[in-house]
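Researcher: If only I could read backbone structure tokens as easily as an amino acid sequence. Walk me, if you will, through where the backbone shape changes along the chain. I have put the entry right below:
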Amino acid sequence: MEEEFGYPGTARIMIADVSIYEAKTYKDRIAAIEGVDRVQWADAVTDINQSSLFIPYEEIDDYYQDGHAVMDITFTGNNSAASTRSAIQQMQTILGEKGSFSGPAVQEKFLNEIITKEMLYILIFGIFIILGLLTLATTSWFEPLVFLIVILISVVINMGSNIFFGTVSSITFSVAAVLQLAIAMDYTIILLDNFTKERKLQLPVEEALSNAIRKSIVTVSSAGAAAVVGFLALVLMRYGIGRDIGLVLAKGIAISMITVMTLTPAFVLRWYKIIESTQHKPLVPSFDKVAGQIYRFRWVTLILLMLIAVPAYVAKDMNDFNYGNEALGLSQGTTMYEDDQAITSKFGRSNLIMAIVPNSSMVTEAKLSEDLEELPYVKYVTSLANTLPDGVLASFLPDSITGQLHSDNYSRILIPIRTSGESELAFRAADEISKIVKGYYPENSYIIGVTPSTMDIKGVIVDDWSRIDKLSMLGVALAIGVAFRSLVLPIVLIIPIKMAVYVNMMVPYLLGARMMYLGFIVVSCLQLGATIDYSIVMTYHYLDQRKRHDKVTASQKATAASMLPILTSGLILAVAGYGLYFLSSVTALADLGRLVARGALLSMFMVIALLPNLFIWSDKMIMLGSKFMPQSIIARQEDRLPDVGEELEDESISQYL
């Protein structure tokens, strides 16, 4: 259709409190707007210019009733074209409070406007909350500002570099910046935490910073690589929006890693005096007792999680899903939703389906139009064959008129039906229309519209997920295996994260809530890629402690040392998600934010409660492979300085030195 006619945007407008003659005047003004291709209204089926006494109102109640007129608009550009947005804006100006607007083109305009405004509020909200969390987690009043400056610079670079893609989806634009801000904060925390420890050993700034970079680079690169690989799995989706989100998020994490490891040291060298002069006592107590309780209740935790595991795995696939784009625009509480409900309550649903058939016979086209008009859910059928007056040949008319419905090779037939864009009734109607069209034109005929598109998306995206889930898990496992040179650790580290993913996706089923299938896929990959950091951080601590302690003690010490960065990171990601949930008026984006936030909290809990005990239970296999791990991961005892504040037991620091 795009090659033959262009792919036009569509909208539906209702005008309130007008006579039929006033409605005709409005219709002519709207048709004259630049960017409007066609306005379908009652004057196409009856003579509006005659006396009101002779107008058959019962035959045009799909277009005019009780002082309300409804019109179907087709634009020259697509739904997201600048000319389409401009045309809708002019219609809103002309109609004022009399007008109600719905349809894909109106949804697109609404989303562009509302997302741009809301994302600014969400970012500002997130920055202030994150500053508060970082202040609690650090020992300097100035460090949180350094964190934010570095990550915000990487966010700006990522969003600006999207220009190389040409376009990005509204979903990607709305969530990428907030999620990158939350996910990449871990890397700066790791680097500055190591720098602080090195400075407490009284090392010069340059040497302390060099040591901090050396100690951080393996942790940051392995965590970042796991996240990038997890997001890149989305790029393999056939559904283009998955590739879009995957590329932007993967690029954002890669940019964040580079920015953190290159720009943070420069800022630290410039501002280390301010960082050290604004030091304060830790605001969060030690987690030693919590670590002990986690070990004490290890069997209770294991039994509870085993009882939950199977139901969670089964329930996640039993959710009710939306597959199309209607869920993005039609959010309760918005003007868009209220307008759509007003139009629907007055005139019912109108869902435009278009048939593209070979331009071979006007007689066949006319018969097809008649058969389609007999379907009970079809409002009307517009084709050139059933529009031309008897005896008038299409060749007599100018191309400006016939070109909307005929090209040299194809005919376009407009078929509005009385359904929503996504429903079982709409799917059955689209199938029936397709069968009728194929009956007349077995070859080179096509059915186009929101419903056929949604059906196609459903078929593609469900099949995509069966591959993407496995590939993302395999990719993350491979990244962990390469980083640790271990076959066992990828399995151990992924278990708590996948458990958290399954429980997260089980909750909507238990609540009876519908969600977008795309959100289900994105959050599943995002939760795995973004929160695997928590497992990686705890693993480094465990391997370090295990060289000097038995497995139980090493597990408890690793838990105590890891809890603050894990809690900080998890709460930051949860804040970003709940920022979307509470501040976005777009239901689909709000639901996406809630999934992200709940997933972060669940991953945080699973890693803290389950992973330390998994280390103990699989210690023999882990340590069997430790001899193959690089020394940058496991420091030899005689080469290692104790962490500042760490209990030295019966040995003095001079023995280590």
Q: What stands out?
A: Residues 2-102 form a domain with the Alpha-Beta Plaits fold (CATH 3.30.70.100). The chain has three domains: 2-102, 109-327+463-656, 342-454. The first strand starts at residue 10 and ends at 15. Residues 631-657 have pLDDT under 50 and may be disordered.
